[in-house]
Amino acid sequence: xxxxxxxxxxxxxxxxxxxxxxxxxxxxxxxxxxxTLFTDLYGPRGLVVDxxxxxxxxxxxxxxxxxxxxxxxxxxNTALVSQLxxxxxxxxxxxxxxxxxxxxxxxQRSTQSFGPILAERAETVGAxxxxxxxxxxxxxxxxxxxLDLEKVPAVFExxxxxxxxxxEDVVTTLxxxxxxxxxxxxxxxxxxxxxxxxxxxxxxxxxxMAVVSDATIQRLGTTDPLTxxxxxxxxxxxxxxxxxxxxxxxxxxxxxxxxxxxxAKGASNGLAVGLDVRVPTGDAMELLGTGTAGLxxxxxxxxxxxxxxxxxxxxxxxNGSSVLAGDPATGTSADFPDAAxxxxxxxxxxxxxLTVAFDVLGRYIxxxxxxxxxxxxxxxxxxxxxxxxxxxxxxxxxxxxxGMKGNLWGRVLLDVNVLFxxxxxxxxxxxxxxxxxxxxx
Length: 441
Known about the structure:
Elements: H1 3-14, E1 25-28, E2 47-49, E3 54-55, E4 59-60, E5 63-66, H2 68-71, H3 73-84, E6 98-101, E7 106-109, E8 130-140, E9 143-144, E10 147-148, E11 152-158, E12 170-191, E13 196-218, E14 230-231, E15 237-238, E16 240-252, E17 255-265, E18 269-279, E19 294-303, E20 308-319, E21 321-327, E22 332-335, E23 339-351, E24 354-377, E25 384-409, E26 412-421, E27 427-428, E28 431-440
Parallel strand pairs: 1-16
Antiparallel strand pairs: 2-5, 3-4, 5-11, 6-7, 8-12, 8-28, 9-10, 9-27, 11-12, 12-13, 13-16, 13-17, 14-15, 17-18, 18-19, 19-20, 20-23, 21-22, 23-24, 24-25, 25-26, 26-28
């Protein structure tokens, strides 16, 4: 059994196909790029059903159907992929930080804790010190705006639907979207001075996406089965068809360069400012990068009270114009959504060799496409079906983070962490695991 056959069977089960029901004819379409997966779903002509009916004057009847889903493929694409390509990177902050003690003439560790995992702290690694790290995360997205990604409804109306009769017929679809991302990040931090760190983080990403659309013709204004139908593999006339599109990609993501400067330092706390520069090294058409440069200034406050080290981060992400925010099918670009970011949490030194870290990470995404569910009212005046629509709006995304850093030996740290959704906004993964290693010298 091929991967496509397995996917089709799995999606039929996910979509709730009745037990023992005859499997509908599956149409598999070629996908040009991962960013055009939804655009390519029904082929270059869109959703067209078969018809043997003729119009007055013996003109052939072209049964073309459209929907808000189809007309706004770019918006659905933006709603999904804008978050696929802005996944949280592990913090390049070193687990070991040092301060020069002039009375002893040596460097000593400046904190007991090994620090946060996905957040920043004000402490720097120390002049001449280097921290190197590797981290792996796997995202399996479950919902979009609280709607199960394996059961996204969309209704297609006949073109010129204001005309009655056959124009009252609609095609209802139930769409199963599967998206997984494996992200392997390498990062290095160099202490330029006691107060200035420079860091570089480069993700390598593997994406796997598929969509299966289970389409059913609802004959609300016609009785002749030859007016609107789907030709089955056997040649018979039917009302149901599956459309399948899938594609995978892998490669480097967007390179992030970070500078962090400590601007105030007290006996038990400090304040730092920094700047992230995102370089669009990832292939946007394969959803490996944003397709645009970005700047993200940020501020960090952290403190150390014996074993407890709280921290607060705040920043703003400016983005340029990207094809992912426009229409990847035509190559049209638009402004990629900006976002305000904030994090609050703490790390606790449980022992000399173990630190526990927890955080609440927030992103306020500004003026982007949002999907919402609605009820579609058919032209026959009685039939209703679940549907989706789109609107421009800003929204907040909250994510929890809980993990630990263990000192395996010497200056080698093992990071283990889980991300978990605290709301249903945007595209969400319920639980995201992370495992990583850090080494400082």
